[in-house]
Amino acid sequence: MAKVGSVNRNNRRKALVIKFAGKRARLHAIAVDESASQEERFAARIKLAALPRNSAPIRVRNRCEVTGRPRGFYRKLKMSRIALRELASAGMIPGMTKSSW
Length: 101
Hints:
The chain has helices at residues 4-32, 38-50, 81-89, and strands at 73-74, 79-80.
């Protein structure tokens, strides 16, 4: 199990990303728009930089939904390799069996 604080911090980051997604997208669109004036683009970049750092999607860490482990993460299943193996061995994942030879 991961530290509870690390998982909670990551969950707060996810919430901030969702909260500021629209504003961040609008400002980014203005900042990269070639038809806008130089002053407008610069002002958009300043406003974008003023947003909270944790509202950037890159700051969110992929973590296992079961254990909170940050490494060995399968995006498709949203869990770590260890949790996946345990659930597969227990027969909890349909169509997946643990290989042994």
